Amino acid sequence: MGNVKPVYNSKITCPVCDSEIEYTKVRSKQIRLLRQDTDFCPYYDGVNPLFYEAVICSECGYGSHITTFSNVDRYARAKIKEKITPKWQKRSFTGERDLLHALEAFKIVLLSLYAMDGPKSEIGKISLRIAWLYRYSGDQEQENKYLKHTLESYKKAYSQEDLSEEGKLDEYTCIYIIGELSKRLGNYEDSTQWLSRLIMSFSDPKQKERIPNRLIEISRDLYQEVKDLAAASKE
Q1: What pLDDT was estimated at residue 57?
Q2: What is the phi/psi pair of residue 133, to 5°?
Q3: Which residues touch 2 (CB under 8 Å, ≥6 apart)?
C-alpha cells in the first residue's frame, strides 16, 4: 500500500465536444487539511487537492471547475467552439500537478468562463483560487490582482444572481467574502459595511437559521479586526 500514488485518473465526457477525456483526482485518504486563512484559502499536509479542481478537455480546450464541468448549455457550447477551440493546441492535463500547472489550468477555466459569459459567482470562485495559488508562491502583486477580480465578481453576483441556486456560493458566505476581501485590499470602510450587514442579518429570526454559527463567529472577529485596522490607519 505504500506505493499507491496520491492521485489517479478518472474519465468524464466533455459537454462541448463529446470526447471522453481523462482527468486527475486526489485520493480522499491523501487529503489532510492543516488550516485555512480567513478567506478560506486551504493549506494541506502533502498533496494539495486544490491543484486538481480545474478540469481541462484536452481535445477542445474547454475548462471548468470539476463541480460545474457538465453544466454547459447550447449557448455556452457554441461560444467555446467559437472562441476557444480554434486557438486550442491539444495537450493533456492529467498526472501530478505543480503550482505552475495548476495556475495554467485555472486560467484556462477563467478564459472559458469569459468566453461563454459565465456567472459572476463562478468567475469569482475561480479568480479566488488563482489568487490563492499566487499566495502560495508569495507573489503579492498577482495575488492582489486576482483578489480584486474576485471582489468585483462577487459584488456583481450578490446584486445580480440568485445565490440560492444549488451549487452556488450562498448569499451569506458571499457577503462575508466581500467583507473579508475588502479588508485584505485595504478597503476598511467597505469591509465593515459588508460584515455589519451579515451580523445584522443574524439578528433577524427569519434569516438566522440560514446562517451558520461559525460564519457569524468569524465575521464578528473579523469586524473587530477591521475596526482596529481602520483606527490604526488614521493615527
Answers
A1: 98
A2: -65, -40
A3: none
Is 174 found in the same domain as 155?
A: no
Which residues, 6 or more positions from 112, have their beta carbon under 8 angstroms from its beta carbon? 61, 62, 63, 64, 80, 84, 118
Residues 6+ apart with CB under 8 A from 111: 63, 84
Strand partners, 56: 63
CB atoms within 10 A of CB 130: 23
Q: How confident is the model at residue 197 (pLDDT cuts 50, 70, 90)?
A: very high
- Residues 160/120, Cβ–Cβ less than 8 Å: yes
186 near 232, Cβ under 8 Å?
no
State the total domains in the chain.
Answer: 2
Q: What is the pTM (predicted TM-score) of this model?
A: 0.94
Alpha carbons 40 and 101: distance in angstroms, whole number: 22
- Sign of the four-CA dihedral 150, 156, 161, 164: positive
In sequence order, the 6+-apart residues with CB closer than 8 A to the CB of 3 are none
1: pLDDT strictly greater than 60:
no
Answer whether 64's CB lies under 8 Å from 77's CB: no
CA 80 – CA 73 distance, rounded (Å): 11
Shared domain check, 216 and 142 = no
The secondary structure element, H or E, covering residue 31 is: none
Q: Which of 133, 150, 167 is at the close of a domain?
A: 167
- Whether 12 and 118 map to the same domain: the answer is yes
Find the domain containing 235 and state its range.
170-235
Q: Which helix (H) or strand (E) holds 221?
A: helix 213-234
